Amino acid sequence: MSKGITREILEDWLKNVRPYARDGKVADYIPALAKQNPDDLAVAICDLDGDSVSAGNEVCCFTLQSISKVLSLALALMDHGEEYVFERVGMEPSGDPFHSIYRLETHNPSRPLNPMINAGALAVTNMIHGITPDEKVGRLLSFIHEMTDDRSITYNTEVASSEYESAHLNRSLCYYMKQHGVIKGSVEETLDAYTKQCAIEVNIRQLARIGAIFANEGKDLDSGRRILPMHLARICKTFMVTCGMYDASGEFAIKVGIPAKSGVSGAVVGTVNGYGGIAVYGPALDGKGNSVVGLKLLELLSNRYDLSIF
Ligand code: DON
What we know:
The protein is α+β, with helices and mostly antiparallel strands.
Protein backbone atom coordinates (compact mmCIF):
# COMPACT_ATOMS: atom_id res chain seq x y z
CA MET A 1 0.00 0.00 0.00
CA SER A 2 1.49 3.31 -1.09
CA LYS A 3 2.69 5.82 1.51
CA GLY A 4 3.14 2.93 3.96
CA ILE A 5 -0.36 3.16 5.43
CA THR A 6 -1.15 0.08 7.52
CA ARG A 7 -4.28 -1.17 9.27
CA GLU A 8 -2.73 -0.14 12.62
CA ILE A 9 -2.18 3.40 11.34
CA LEU A 10 -5.79 3.61 10.15
CA GLU A 11 -7.07 2.21 13.49
CA ASP A 12 -5.14 5.01 15.21
CA TRP A 13 -6.64 7.67 12.96
CA LEU A 14 -10.11 6.28 13.64
CA LYS A 15 -9.47 6.46 17.38
CA ASN A 16 -8.46 10.11 17.02
CA VAL A 17 -11.58 11.13 15.11
CA ARG A 18 -14.11 9.00 17.03
CA PRO A 19 -15.03 11.82 19.48
CA TYR A 20 -16.17 14.05 16.59
CA ALA A 21 -19.19 11.76 16.06
CA ARG A 22 -20.77 13.57 19.02
CA ASP A 23 -20.88 16.81 17.00
CA GLY A 24 -23.20 15.33 14.38
CA LYS A 25 -26.58 13.72 14.03
CA VAL A 26 -27.68 10.61 12.12
CA ALA A 27 -30.05 11.42 9.22
CA ASP A 28 -33.66 10.72 10.15
CA TYR A 29 -35.62 12.37 7.33
CA ILE A 30 -35.37 8.92 5.70
CA PRO A 31 -36.80 6.95 8.65
CA ALA A 32 -34.82 3.75 8.00
CA LEU A 33 -31.50 5.64 8.15
CA ALA A 34 -32.24 6.72 11.74
CA LYS A 35 -31.36 3.16 12.81
CA GLN A 36 -27.69 3.66 11.96
CA ASN A 37 -25.28 3.71 14.89
CA PRO A 38 -23.26 6.97 15.02
CA ASP A 39 -20.32 5.11 16.57
CA ASP A 40 -20.07 2.65 13.70
CA LEU A 41 -16.99 3.94 11.86
CA ALA A 42 -14.89 2.58 9.01
CA VAL A 43 -12.14 3.67 6.65
CA ALA A 44 -10.47 2.02 3.66
CA ILE A 45 -7.84 2.99 1.12
CA CYS A 46 -7.48 1.14 -2.18
CA ASP A 47 -4.44 1.72 -4.37
CA LEU A 48 -4.27 1.52 -8.16
CA ASP A 49 -3.19 -2.12 -8.04
CA GLY A 50 -6.40 -2.99 -6.21
CA ASP A 51 -4.61 -3.57 -2.88
CA SER A 52 -6.53 -2.18 0.02
CA VAL A 53 -6.14 -1.55 3.70
CA SER A 54 -9.01 -0.85 6.05
CA ALA A 55 -9.98 -0.36 9.68
CA GLY A 56 -13.12 -0.10 11.79
CA ASN A 57 -16.29 -1.89 10.79
CA GLU A 58 -15.21 -3.52 7.54
CA VAL A 59 -18.10 -5.96 7.22
CA CYS A 60 -21.01 -3.65 7.79
CA CYS A 61 -22.73 -2.37 4.65
CA PHE A 62 -24.13 1.08 4.28
CA THR A 63 -26.24 2.65 1.56
CA LEU A 64 -24.60 4.83 -1.07
CA GLN A 65 -27.24 7.59 -0.95
CA SER A 66 -25.86 10.60 -2.84
CA ILE A 67 -22.62 8.83 -3.71
CA SER A 68 -24.77 6.92 -6.22
CA LYS A 69 -25.24 10.22 -8.08
CA VAL A 70 -21.68 10.04 -9.42
CA LEU A 71 -22.32 6.55 -10.77
CA SER A 72 -25.72 7.35 -12.28
CA LEU A 73 -24.16 10.39 -13.95
CA ALA A 74 -21.41 8.21 -15.43
CA LEU A 75 -24.05 5.79 -16.74
CA ALA A 76 -26.26 8.54 -18.20
CA LEU A 77 -23.20 10.05 -19.92
CA MET A 78 -22.33 6.66 -21.38
CA ASP A 79 -25.96 6.21 -22.48
CA HIS A 80 -26.46 9.62 -24.11
CA GLY A 81 -23.22 11.60 -24.39
CA GLU A 82 -22.41 14.98 -22.88
CA GLU A 83 -24.52 17.17 -25.13
CA TYR A 84 -27.81 15.45 -24.29
CA VAL A 85 -27.12 15.25 -20.55
CA PHE A 86 -25.88 18.82 -20.12
CA GLU A 87 -28.77 20.27 -22.07
CA ARG A 88 -30.95 19.05 -19.20
CA VAL A 89 -28.64 19.42 -16.19
CA GLY A 90 -26.10 22.20 -15.67
CA MET A 91 -22.44 22.20 -14.67
CA GLU A 92 -22.37 24.87 -11.98
CA PRO A 93 -22.20 24.52 -8.19
CA SER A 94 -25.36 25.76 -6.54
CA GLY A 95 -24.09 26.87 -3.14
CA ASP A 96 -27.47 25.70 -1.83
CA PRO A 97 -28.45 22.68 0.32
CA PHE A 98 -28.67 19.40 -1.60
CA HIS A 99 -32.48 19.25 -1.55
CA SER A 100 -33.14 22.90 -2.40
CA ILE A 101 -35.91 23.73 -4.89
CA TYR A 102 -35.17 27.46 -4.94
CA ARG A 103 -32.96 27.67 -8.06
CA LEU A 104 -35.38 25.65 -10.16
CA GLU A 105 -37.74 28.57 -9.90
CA THR A 106 -35.29 31.46 -10.13
CA HIS A 107 -32.93 30.02 -12.74
CA ASN A 108 -33.79 30.34 -16.40
CA PRO A 109 -34.10 27.89 -18.14
CA SER A 110 -35.61 25.88 -15.30
CA ARG A 111 -33.09 23.07 -15.21
CA PRO A 112 -31.11 21.86 -12.19
CA LEU A 113 -27.73 23.57 -11.74
CA ASN A 114 -25.72 20.35 -11.45
CA PRO A 115 -26.11 16.54 -11.24
CA MET A 116 -25.02 16.28 -7.58
CA ILE A 117 -27.92 18.16 -5.99
CA ASN A 118 -31.12 16.12 -5.69
CA ALA A 119 -32.93 17.90 -8.54
CA GLY A 120 -30.04 17.22 -10.93
CA ALA A 121 -29.64 13.62 -9.79
CA LEU A 122 -33.37 12.93 -10.22
CA ALA A 123 -33.17 14.31 -13.76
CA VAL A 124 -30.11 12.11 -14.44
CA THR A 125 -31.86 8.96 -13.14
CA ASN A 126 -34.81 9.83 -15.36
CA MET A 127 -32.43 9.81 -18.36
CA ILE A 128 -30.77 6.43 -17.75
CA HIS A 129 -31.76 3.88 -20.40
CA GLY A 130 -34.30 1.33 -19.20
CA ILE A 131 -38.02 0.92 -19.72
CA THR A 132 -38.83 0.11 -16.08
CA PRO A 133 -37.28 1.48 -12.87
CA ASP A 134 -35.89 -1.99 -12.16
CA GLU A 135 -34.21 -2.08 -15.55
CA LYS A 136 -32.51 1.27 -14.85
CA VAL A 137 -31.40 0.17 -11.38
CA GLY A 138 -30.33 -3.20 -12.76
CA ARG A 139 -28.03 -1.44 -15.24
CA LEU A 140 -26.58 0.72 -12.48
CA LEU A 141 -26.03 -2.38 -10.35
CA SER A 142 -24.26 -4.13 -13.25
CA PHE A 143 -21.94 -1.12 -13.56
CA ILE A 144 -21.21 -1.33 -9.81
CA HIS A 145 -20.71 -5.13 -10.04
CA GLU A 146 -18.13 -4.52 -12.73
CA MET A 147 -16.30 -1.92 -10.65
CA THR A 148 -16.30 -3.93 -7.43
CA ASP A 149 -16.07 -7.41 -8.99
CA ASP A 150 -18.91 -8.43 -6.68
CA ARG A 151 -22.19 -9.51 -8.27
CA SER A 152 -23.96 -9.89 -4.94
CA ILE A 153 -24.25 -6.11 -4.42
CA THR A 154 -27.88 -4.99 -4.42
CA TYR A 155 -30.10 -2.38 -2.83
CA ASN A 156 -31.58 -2.42 0.67
CA THR A 157 -35.33 -2.79 0.16
CA GLU A 158 -36.21 -1.37 3.60
CA VAL A 159 -34.19 1.83 3.03
CA ALA A 160 -35.50 2.15 -0.54
CA SER A 161 -39.16 1.92 0.46
CA SER A 162 -38.66 4.06 3.55
CA GLU A 163 -37.28 6.83 1.32
CA TYR A 164 -39.88 6.30 -1.41
CA GLU A 165 -42.71 6.74 1.10
CA SER A 166 -41.24 9.84 2.73
CA ALA A 167 -39.70 11.58 -0.34
CA HIS A 168 -42.16 14.48 -0.44
CA LEU A 169 -39.50 17.04 -1.26
CA ASN A 170 -37.92 14.93 -4.01
CA ARG A 171 -41.40 14.29 -5.39
CA SER A 172 -42.04 18.02 -5.59
CA LEU A 173 -38.66 18.56 -7.33
CA CYS A 174 -39.67 15.93 -9.89
CA TYR A 175 -43.11 17.43 -10.54
CA TYR A 176 -41.57 20.86 -10.91
CA MET A 177 -39.09 19.51 -13.46
CA LYS A 178 -41.75 17.51 -15.26
CA GLN A 179 -43.77 20.69 -15.71
CA HIS A 180 -40.69 22.26 -17.36
CA GLY A 181 -39.92 19.27 -19.57
CA VAL A 182 -36.69 18.30 -17.77
CA ILE A 183 -38.15 15.02 -16.52
CA LYS A 184 -40.05 12.84 -18.96
CA GLY A 185 -42.52 10.03 -18.25
CA SER A 186 -43.66 8.92 -14.83
CA VAL A 187 -42.53 10.83 -11.73
CA GLU A 188 -43.34 7.85 -9.50
CA GLU A 189 -41.17 5.55 -11.62
CA THR A 190 -38.30 8.05 -11.53
CA LEU A 191 -38.59 8.21 -7.74
CA ASP A 192 -38.76 4.43 -7.53
CA ALA A 193 -35.51 4.11 -9.52
CA TYR A 194 -33.83 6.97 -7.62
CA THR A 195 -34.69 5.67 -4.14
CA LYS A 196 -33.47 2.18 -5.07
CA GLN A 197 -30.27 3.64 -6.52
CA CYS A 198 -29.66 5.59 -3.28
CA ALA A 199 -30.28 2.42 -1.24
CA ILE A 200 -27.56 0.37 -2.99
CA GLU A 201 -25.42 -1.17 -0.25
CA VAL A 202 -21.65 -1.60 -0.27
CA ASN A 203 -18.96 -2.12 2.32
CA ILE A 204 -16.05 0.23 2.97
CA ARG A 205 -13.51 -1.65 0.81
CA GLN A 206 -15.88 -1.79 -2.13
CA LEU A 207 -16.43 1.93 -1.90
CA ALA A 208 -12.68 2.62 -1.78
CA ARG A 209 -12.27 0.43 -4.88
CA ILE A 210 -14.88 2.48 -6.73
CA GLY A 211 -12.88 5.61 -5.82
CA ALA A 212 -9.69 3.95 -7.06
CA ILE A 213 -11.25 3.16 -10.46
CA PHE A 214 -12.00 6.86 -10.93
CA ALA A 215 -8.40 7.59 -9.87
CA ASN A 216 -7.32 5.01 -12.48
CA GLU A 217 -9.13 7.08 -15.13
CA GLY A 218 -11.98 4.59 -15.44
CA LYS A 219 -9.93 1.40 -15.88
CA ASP A 220 -10.34 -1.81 -13.91
CA LEU A 221 -7.57 -2.17 -11.32
CA ASP A 222 -6.76 -5.83 -12.04
CA SER A 223 -7.27 -6.29 -15.77
CA GLY A 224 -6.77 -2.70 -16.96
CA ARG A 225 -10.01 -3.11 -18.94
CA ARG A 226 -11.86 0.14 -19.50
CA ILE A 227 -15.07 0.35 -17.48
CA LEU A 228 -15.74 4.02 -18.15
CA PRO A 229 -14.23 6.36 -20.77
CA MET A 230 -11.42 8.53 -19.40
CA HIS A 231 -13.06 11.85 -20.27
CA LEU A 232 -16.25 10.79 -18.45
CA ALA A 233 -14.27 9.76 -15.37
CA ARG A 234 -12.76 13.26 -15.48
CA ILE A 235 -16.16 14.94 -15.71
CA CYS A 236 -17.36 12.96 -12.67
CA LYS A 237 -14.23 13.89 -10.67
CA THR A 238 -14.63 17.55 -11.57
CA PHE A 239 -18.20 17.52 -10.26
CA MET A 240 -16.88 15.87 -7.10
CA VAL A 241 -14.56 18.86 -6.60
CA THR A 242 -17.07 21.59 -7.42
CA CYS A 243 -20.31 20.06 -6.06
CA GLY A 244 -19.49 16.80 -4.21
CA MET A 245 -19.96 18.31 -0.74
CA TYR A 246 -22.79 20.65 -1.83
CA ASP A 247 -22.60 24.02 -0.07
CA ALA A 248 -19.46 22.85 1.79
CA SER A 249 -17.51 22.08 -1.42
CA GLY A 250 -15.34 25.22 -1.24
CA GLU A 251 -14.29 24.65 2.36
CA PHE A 252 -13.67 20.96 1.64
CA ALA A 253 -11.49 21.83 -1.38
CA ILE A 254 -9.38 24.11 0.81
CA LYS A 255 -9.13 21.85 3.85
CA VAL A 256 -8.93 18.45 2.10
CA GLY A 257 -8.34 19.06 -1.61
CA ILE A 258 -9.57 15.66 -2.80
CA PRO A 259 -12.39 15.09 -5.34
CA ALA A 260 -15.03 13.47 -3.13
CA LYS A 261 -18.72 12.70 -2.80
CA SER A 262 -20.74 12.33 0.36
CA GLY A 263 -24.02 10.59 1.13
CA VAL A 264 -26.48 11.04 4.01
CA SER A 265 -25.75 7.51 5.20
CA GLY A 266 -22.48 9.06 6.41
CA ALA A 267 -20.23 7.61 3.74
CA VAL A 268 -17.76 9.66 1.69
CA VAL A 269 -15.67 8.46 -1.24
CA GLY A 270 -12.54 10.29 -2.35
CA THR A 271 -10.42 9.74 -5.45
CA VAL A 272 -6.82 10.82 -5.97
CA ASN A 273 -5.26 10.42 -9.42
CA GLY A 274 -2.10 8.36 -9.38
CA TYR A 275 -2.81 7.24 -5.80
CA GLY A 276 -6.17 5.51 -5.33
CA GLY A 277 -9.54 5.69 -3.62
CA ILE A 278 -10.37 6.51 -0.02
CA ALA A 279 -13.68 5.64 1.64
CA VAL A 280 -14.80 6.74 5.08
CA TYR A 281 -18.00 5.99 6.96
CA GLY A 282 -19.45 7.65 10.03
CA PRO A 283 -23.25 8.18 10.12
CA ALA A 284 -23.29 11.35 12.27
CA LEU A 285 -23.78 14.27 9.87
CA ASP A 286 -23.18 17.99 10.06
CA GLY A 287 -25.84 20.54 9.15
CA LYS A 288 -24.99 20.25 5.45
CA GLY A 289 -25.52 16.49 5.32
CA ASN A 290 -21.84 15.47 5.32
CA SER A 291 -20.24 12.96 7.74
CA VAL A 292 -18.54 14.81 10.61
CA VAL A 293 -16.07 12.02 11.30
CA GLY A 294 -15.57 11.41 7.59
CA LEU A 295 -14.64 15.02 6.86
CA LYS A 296 -12.25 15.19 9.82
CA LEU A 297 -10.60 11.92 8.88
CA LEU A 298 -10.16 12.96 5.25
CA GLU A 299 -8.70 16.29 6.36
CA LEU A 300 -6.17 14.60 8.65
CA LEU A 301 -5.21 11.95 6.08
CA SER A 302 -4.90 14.49 3.29
CA ASN A 303 -2.67 16.78 5.35
CA ARG A 304 -0.52 13.98 6.78
CA TYR A 305 0.03 12.20 3.45
CA ASP A 306 -0.04 15.25 1.19
CA LEU A 307 -2.98 14.01 -0.88
CA SER A 308 -4.42 17.37 -1.98
CA ILE A 309 -4.65 17.58 -5.75
CA PHE A 310 -4.08 21.34 -5.67
O1 DON B 1 -32.45 12.11 -1.98
C1 DON B 1 -32.08 12.10 -0.83
O2 DON B 1 -32.39 12.98 -0.04
C2 DON B 1 -31.14 10.99 -0.38
N1 DON B 1 -31.52 9.74 -0.97
C3 DON B 1 -29.72 11.30 -0.76
C4 DON B 1 -29.24 12.63 -0.24
C5 DON B 1 -27.80 12.63 0.12
O3 DON B 1 -27.19 11.61 0.31
C6 DON B 1 -27.19 13.96 0.35
N2 DON B 1 -25.80 13.82 0.73
N3 DON B 1 -25.13 14.12 1.60
